[in-house]
Amino acid sequence: MIYRTKTEIHLSNRYGMSIAQYTDLLNSQHGRCAACRNIPSPGGRRNVNNKLFVDHDHATGDVRGLLCQKCNAAIGLTVNSPTILRALADYLEKSPAIVKTKLTHRGKHGAYQLTKKTCVNGHPFSQENTYVIPATGHRMCRVCRRQSDLRRRPSINQQKRDKRVLAKDVANGSARITEYT
Predict the structure, then answer these.
(1) How confident is the model at residue 95 (pLDDT cuts 50, 70, 90)?
(2) Can you give 107-163 as a three-state secondary structure string?
């Protein structure tokens, strides 16, 4: 008995194609998405981002090519309508910004957060007192950040005290030291 993989069964049942045909199509596209020409990136949930999906005409069932997850989803959301896709492209290219902002803060209330003049503790958001977290764009008061760091970081004296207590417990034999191998 010949066993077939889930991929082979899916390709055969859904699109009427074999793994060899999929591979030939993949090679003819040089491993790139037929629409955006990008190479899929690894990662994502269930490795969805590192493979190309078979794009087919829902009316006829004909295979058109292999698409990345984003292009495949975009075509699906526009109900395979070139008219809607052209209208969206025109909108993106020609529509001017209605409200011009310089948002550096992402989040639910990003624009509102930028209008605040003080932090929750009343410290002013001035040039010298504002720290912007590079990864997220969130603003933080430098005074509050310093106080938060000090609360989280034990003092030098506390660290010395902890070492003395541990050394004393080890000497008494009451310390539990676990080694992981």
Answers:
(1) confident
(2) CCCHHHHHHCCECCCCCECCCCCEEECCCCCCEEEHHHHHHHHHHHCCCHHHHHHHH
